[in-house]
Task: structure prediction
Amino acid sequence: MENEKQPVHQHLSGYAQQAKGTTGFARIVKATGYSRDGFLAAYRQEPAFRQVFWLNLILLILLVFMPFMLLVKMVLIFASIFSLVVELFNTGLEAAIDHTSTERHPLAKIGKDVGSAAQFLALCLLAILWLMAFFG
Result:
């Protein structure tokens, strides 16, 4: 019964224990480092992430000069960040699938295709919102 009251991370060992064991400001610092590592890995190893990153950087720079209302700008910024988040999830999903096996498997294909479909929808949303901002 006593084990049920302990946090989950107390049952982990090795690297996982070290990563989960910190609290407070030290945890925030470590999490920030992991996030930086994730951005760098995605940028260096995934052409799709680089493409989405540069597309959104250009759109955000363009947004500075557009005479849209603040609410419209906020929605466009959200859509840009959302497409980057979806691409990060897609990249992570693909890496996890490839780590499991690089052999062709129907379930691996579904996993990768679903991640791709999610990114397609995020980019469609981005395009639709920009079109609405221009012509709405």
The two ends are 60 Å apart (CA to CA). The chain has six helices and no strands. The CA atoms of residues 16 and 108 lie 26 Å apart. The first helix runs from residue 2 to 5.
